[in-house]
Amino acid sequence: MSKIDLSVNIGKLKLRNPIMLASGTVGYGNEISEFTDLNKIGGIVTKSLSLKPRKGNPPQRIVETPAGMLNAIGLANVGVEEFLKEKIPFLKKYDVPLICNIAASTLEEYVECTRILTQEETIKAFEINVSCPNVKEGGLQFGNDVSAVGKITEKVKSVTDKPVIIKLSPNVSYISEFAKAVKKEGGDAVSAINTLVGTSFNIFTKRPKLFNISGGLSGPAIKPVALAKVLEIKRNVDIPIIGIGGISNWQDVIEFMIVGASAVQLGTINFIDPSAAGKILTQLEEYCTKYGVTKLSELTGSYKI
Amino acid sequence: MFITKAPVEKSIELDHNIYLLKIHSPEIANNVRPGQFLNIRVSESMYPLLRRPFSVCDVEGEFIYLMFNIYGEGTRLLSRKHKGDMIDILGPLGNGFNIEDNYDTAVIVAGGLGAAPFAFLTRSISENKNIHSFIGGRTYQDVITYGMKNVSAATDDGSKGFKGTVVDLFRKEFDNIKGNKIKIFGCGPNAMLSALKDFSLSKNINCEVSTECAMACGFGICQGCPIESTEHPEKYYLVCKDGPVFNVKDVVI
After folding, report:
1. In this model, does residue B15 exceed pLDDT 80?
2. Which residues of A are catalytic?
3. Which CATH superfamily is domain B211-253 in?
4. Contact with chain A for residue B167, Cβ under 8 A
C-alpha cells in the first residue's frame, strides 16, 4: 500500500497532519493526554494566556444549547510566568507542535506576552486571540476593528520570528476584510472562527443563565457559519486558514478542507469525547485509502462552485 | 479515569419520578470511591450534546447504580434505557469523600437528590462506626432514603417527619447524637449546604460537602465549573477536578 501523506503546511509551520486541538478545550495538555496521544496529532493550542493570571468569570460559565454550548469562562488562565514554569515541562515531553494562544487587553500586552514566550523553544507558533467575546475590556473590540487587528499583527510580528496566526471573530460583517489586514501586516495565517456571541435566559426567573449574560456559542450548531466564513476568506484572500467550528468527525474535517482550510482545530468535541482526535485521524486515513487520496493537503480549497 | 461503554442491567423506577439505573461495569465498580461521579453521554446524536454528570449512587460487585429524576431531555432519554442498552461513561471523576478519617459517628445530611451518593457511602463506611442520616425534601415525595441507615426525615410542608429544613432537624437532634467524634457528609442545594456550613463551623465539626455546578467535560479542560476558594481568593477551584467534595471550610458556599 502506498504511503498516504497527511502532512500540511500553514505557512512555514509544518504539521504531520491537519488535526489540531483548539485553544480553551484542552487546557495545557495534561488532562487530555490520558485520552489522546499527543505525539500523533498535528498540533496543540494552549488555553489563552495573558501576561498576568486571570481568575475568570464566576459561575455559571456553561450553558448547553441545541447542538452546541455557550461558554463565558472569562479567559481564566495561569498567566505567562506560571505557564513557562509549571506547564511547559509537561508539554516538552511530547513531539507535537505547541502553539501558544495569547489574549490581552491592550496592544502592549499582546506584544509583551509574545516577546517573553518567543524565547521558549518548545513554542512553535502563536495564535493571537483578538476575538474573545467574554472579556469586557479587550478582545472583541479589537476583533471588530480591522485596523486594530492589522496593528496587532504588525506589532506581534515585530517581536517574533515564529509564525503568527490571528484567530478571527465571526461576529463581523466581512471576515475576509480582517484576513486581508492580517496578510497585509505580515501575519502567517488566520484561524476561523472563534465563538459566536449568544445568550440564554431562564424563562421563570427572567434572568440570564450565564453570569456574564452573554457567552460564546460553539459546537456543531455553528459549523455552517464557520464553513461560510472559511470559504469567504478563501475566495478573497491568499492566506493559510485553520478551520474551526463544530468539527466532530472526519467528514467535518474533509468539508472544512474542501472550502479552504489547510488544517483544522477540534474544540467542543474534546469535552464530549476526549479521544476524538485519535479516532478522526484513523478515519481520515481510511478515507484517503478508500478514495485514493495520496496527499491530503490537495483537498484544501478543492471546492467546485 | 476511563471512557467505557457498559450495558444496562436493569432500570428501576423508584417512587415519585426517581429512577435507578443498574449498569454492569467492572472497570468503574472496581475503581470508584463514594462521592465520585461519572459523566454520561445519553445520546450519540448532537442533541443533547454534552455529557451529564451523575454521582455514583451505589456499587454492588461489578454493578454500579445511578440515581436521577427526569429533569430535562438528557434524563428523559436515560430513563428510557433498557436491559442491554449501552451507556457511554467517562469516569470515575473527581475526588470523593474521605471516609477513612478519624471519627466514630458519621452524620449524613442530604436534601432532595443530594441523597444520591449516600447509599454507596453508607455501604463503604466501616461497620464499627455509627451512622445517622438526616434527609430532607420539599414534600414527602422528595425524601429519598434509598440504601441509607438510621434515617430521620424533614420536609418543608411537614408531610413527612420534622416540619422544617433538614439542617434545622439536625440542629435539633444534635445533642441526642451519641458519639465522641462526629464527621458530617453533606450533599444538596446550596442553601442547605450553606446552613450546614454555618452549623458545622459553630460546633467545630469536620464536614465534607459534595458541590454541584454546570459543567461540560468533567475533568478540568473546559474550566466551566468554578467554586470560590476561602484560602486562595485569587483563583477558583474547579468543582469537577478539585471537588466535587470539599471540606466545607475550604469553599465559599
Report:
1. no
2. 132
3. Dihydroorotate dehydrogenase, electron transfer subunit (2.10.240.10)
4. no
Neighbours of B182 (CB within 10 A): 20
Residue pointed to by grid coordinates 487587528: A149
Q: Does residue A1 lie in a domain region? A: no
Sequence-distant (6+) residues with CB within 8 A of A115 are: A159, A160
Domain B97-207 has CATH 3.40.50.80: yes
Query: Do A129 and A103 touch, CB atoms closer than 8 A?
Result: yes
Instruction: Say which DSSP state A60 is in.
Output: P
Q: Is residue A304 part of a domain?
A: no
Total domain count, chain A: 1
C-alpha–C-alpha distance, residues B157 and B183, integer Å: 28
The CATH number given to whatever domain includes residue A275 is 3.20.20.70
Alpha carbon distance A107, A109 (integer Å): 5
Asked if the C-beta of B77 comes within 8 angstroms of chain A's C-beta atoms, the answer is no
The arithmetic mean of pLDDT across residues B53-76, rounded, is: 96
Position A214 in a domain? yes
Residue A74, phi then psi, degrees to nearest 5: 80, 30
Assigned C-alpha cell, A62 = 456553561
Chain B interface includes A275 (CB < 8 A): yes
Tens-digit pLDDT profile for residues A190-236:
999 999 999 999 999 999 999 999 999 999 999 999 999 999 999 99
Q: Quick check: B215 contacting A, CB < 8 Å? A: yes
Chain B residue with Cα closest to A72 = B224
> Does the model's pTM come out above 0.80?
yes
CA of A191 to nearest chain B CA: how many angstroms apart?
A: 20
Of A57, A66, A271, the CB nearest to B217: A271
Residues of B in contact with A31 (CB under 8 A): 219-221, 241
Under an 8 A CB cutoff, do A220 and B41 touch?
no
For chain A positions 198-257, those within 8 Å of chain B (CB to CB) are 219-220, 248
* HEC per residue, A136-166: CCCCHHHHCCHHHHHHHHHHHHCCCCCCEEE
